[in-house]
Structures are given as structure tokens and as C-alpha cells.
Amino acid sequence: MQIQMPSGSVDDLAGLVDRLRRDRRTDPYRGRQEYSHAARDLTDRCEALIDAGEAVTVVPVLRKAADRMTTALMYMDDSSGIVGDDLQRIMDLYARACVAAPPNPKRLASWLVKVECDGPGWPRILLRDFAPALGASGLVEVEHLVAERAETADPESWSGQFAIRGLREQLAEVSGDVDRYVQVLAEHLASAVQYARIVDALCSAGRLVEAAAWARRGLAEKVGWPHTDELRNTLVGLLLEEGQIEEALEMRRADFERNPTLASYRAWVSTSAQAGVADPTSAAVERLRRRATEQPAYMTELVDILVATGAHDEAWTVGKADPNRLGRQRWLTLLAQRSSVDPADVIEPYQDLVEVQVRDSGDKHRYRRALPLISALQAVCRAAGQDDRFAAYLIDFRERHRRRPTLIKTLDGAGFGA
Fold first, then answer.
1. Distance of alpha carbon 221 from alpha carbon 224, whole angstroms
2. Domain final residue, candidates 57, 73, 101
3. Which of 163, 221, 350, 383 is the 20 to 30 Å CA partner of 137?
4. Whole-prediction pTM
5. Domain range for residue 74?
């Protein structure tokens, strides 16, 4: 039986790929939308052909498209990342097409290594997606080519070393040999992410004791680094699963002592609930009160936790004592919360914020940005039953700033006229 082909698909592929050619002399800001549309049109047509059992038709087409888009992105402004995403979709579809209609495995291996090692850093190569198409011989070829690259690569080239290391890690991953994968990852323990990947691999293999040991090691060697929270969460989960409740709770308590944030507080509370022990809120708040007294920089964390625990009166008292330390957004949030309890309390703070805003000479939009504050001030005066106070304030405010004609015009346009 002859397969019904998607209408017009085959005839248009060459033309669509030609639209992905881009002259490097073209203005980098021109034609991005049209270029993206061409890439998406090609993706849709090729996907339809794969679904129709014609993957062999689109394999060379998608490879050529990937090459052209990789080059085009070197001379195109893609700060939005849209065309980069289009390229990655082309690459993902190419992997799918190769699995359905495998090309020569050695040639595919050579191309993948070349893109990763000699390319500009995009698209992302995922060997696991190409592994079925590469087969055993193709993966051996990738390994051989990577080994050759490793021997000749410039040790001072960060990008070159990164590409080789990434391919070696991916080869170890697709091998299915967990020990090999862990060994390769452990060669470059430059960040907490590497530890997390080792831990995840060991957890997936059911080797939980080893996973916990690696998590402990990562937390000890990368204190305060990004992504250590992921390691800590995984380790706490493993400890709870093994019934080591005291160690899990001590880890949460120590983390809060070292870094008393809302996130670490919530993690401590959550773990305590899982373990079926008393809520640590009282102890956490008391410790943070003492810390904020000794080190006022922790006042912001204290306010966050007080709000989270419903201690709004204390949060208001603490925040009002030094609103500048809270930061503008946190202070505004606190004002909004307090206005629902006692709107009269926030009238003067809103007046102060309006004054600071209109005098901020570094903000060319300062007058426009003062309007929401004035509106909020009007609302809290009304809620407090002090409409006359707002009217008097507005008259005084306009008089004091009468030499700012742009401000007066902005006020008039927003309905805050005399």
C-alpha cells in the first residue's frame, strides 16, 4: 500500500532550508521573526514526514538545517532565545529521524563530535537521544574521536575542555555502567551540580548508602555553593527513608543556624512534620530574634518568617523600626498587609515613600511611578475614615512641588488635580 504523503511537504523542504541561509552582512536585528517562522515551518513539515514513515527523506534535510542555523546564530541577535529554541527543536527532531532511519553511524558520530567540539556552543548535543541511531559501532567511534580530541586539545581552552568533558560524561551515562559514570563525573568536582548528578545516578541504581555518602561529601566540600540545597534535600529524604530522623533534623537545624532564611525555615518545618516531631517555629523565631539583635542585616529574614508564621504585629513593629533595611519591595508588601489591619498606621509611611520617589533624580520615570503610591495613600486614608487628611496632603504636596511642572501635569492627568 502506498503511504499518503503530507500535501506539498517534500517539494517545499529544499526551499525551506534555503530560507535558513543567512548572509553575515545582514543587520543582526533584521528578519529574525521571518527566520523563526521558516524554521518552525520546516520542523512541522519534517515531523509530518517522520510520522508518515518517511524519516529517511528528512534526515539529510534536518542536518543541513541544523548546520545553517548554527552558523546563522553567530551573526544574528537572538537575545530573546527564540531562534536558539527553534534550532534545538530541529536538533531534537533530527535525533528522532536518525533513530527511525539511521544514517551511517561513523559519519553521524563524526558530525556530532564536530558540532560539540568545534561549534559555537549550540545546539546542545544529547548522546542519549542519538544512541539508538549510533548503535555500538557509532558510540565506539564517538569515544575514539573524543579520545583523539583530548590528546590534541589546548589545555588552556575552557570551551574545548568543557566540550570534551561533556562528551565523556555523556558516553559514560549512555554506557549504563553506573560505576564508570560516577568515576567520570568525579574527575571534575568543580561545583555542587556534579555531586548532585552522582547522587541522582546512585539513587536511580538503588545504591542509597553510597548516594548519601556522596551527598554528605558534596555538602562538606561546597558549603554555601549554588545547588547545595538540592543535595541537602536529597540527603534529608534518604535519611528519613532510612529512619535516621535525628540526623535529618540536625541537618535542617544547622542549615537554618548558618543561613536563617524563609526557605531554610520552611525546610526545617517540613522535615519536622515528616518526622512527626514538634514544630520548630518557636525555636527558629527566637534564634532569629537574637541574631537580628546582634546583626541587624538579618532583620529582613526575621520579618519574612514572622509574616509567614502569622505574627503580623511583630513583623510590623520590627519592619517599621528600620524600613530602609527591608528594601523597597518588602516594605511595600508589609505596608499592604498592615493596611488591612490598621490603615491609619501606614499613612505616614506612604507619604514618606511618595516623597522619596518624586525626589529620585536618578529615575526618569519617578513621577509616573509615584502615582501608584499616591493611589495607595488615598485608599488607606479612605479606609481609615480620613479623606480630609488626603485632600489636605494633596494640596500641600502640590504646593511644595509647584516648581516641578512635569510632576503637576502628571498629577493632573491621573486625576489628582487641585
1. 9
2. 101
3. 163
4. 0.81
5. 1-101
